[in-house]
Amino acid sequence: xxxxxxxxxxxxxxxxxxxxxxxxxxxxxxxxxxxxxxxxxxxxxxxxxxxxxxxxxxxxxxxxxxxxxxxxxxxxxxxxxxxxxxxxxxxxxxxxxxxxxxxxxxxxxxxxxxxxxxxxxxxx
Length: 124
What we know:
The protein is globular. Helix content is 15%, strand content 35%.
């Protein structure tokens, strides 16, 4: 399989540029949100910042900027950008979108997180 091929669980293979993966469900939700915004100049930025009770927190937001050192990968029309400092913390992370009775929203499964807090918003 190539880097852009789909795996059996419909998750796009990790990118070489920043290592973050985006499931088909997450890509569809991002496209839907961008469509609601009526803008085609936004990208999904994923970052790690100091904070939270475990030391680091995730940030997921739409951004129109391109910063020096940004790594960008296109997932079927959804551009995901990660700043250079966050790449080592996010390499291999999978972003998914859940819409069930027990879970709703974007989730990040990160193999680099050694542990997280009870609220699930921060990690170390």
